[in-house]
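Researcher: I'm preparing a figure for a lab meeting and need a structural model of a single chain. I don't have an experimental structure, so a prediction will have to do for now. The sequence is pasted below. Please return the structure as tokens so I can convert it later.
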Amino acid sequence: MAFNAENKLGELVDNEAAYAVLLKHWPKLGTAGPMLNMGRGMSLKQIAGFPQAELSADTLQAIVSDLENL
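Model: Understood. Here is the structure written out token by token.
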């Protein structure tokens, strides 16, 4: 499966390799708790639009770059 910024967070979290990429660049995700469940149906691109996600454009690009190489 090819991954990109349009993938839903739930798809990425449910894939072990993709989840490892997320945690590498966005360690806050590992402590998101209930917020993680709320974001499962949203794409990474959508989530990056929320300031409280603390997911910068540079971090998003680094995540996407690594995901594309899985």
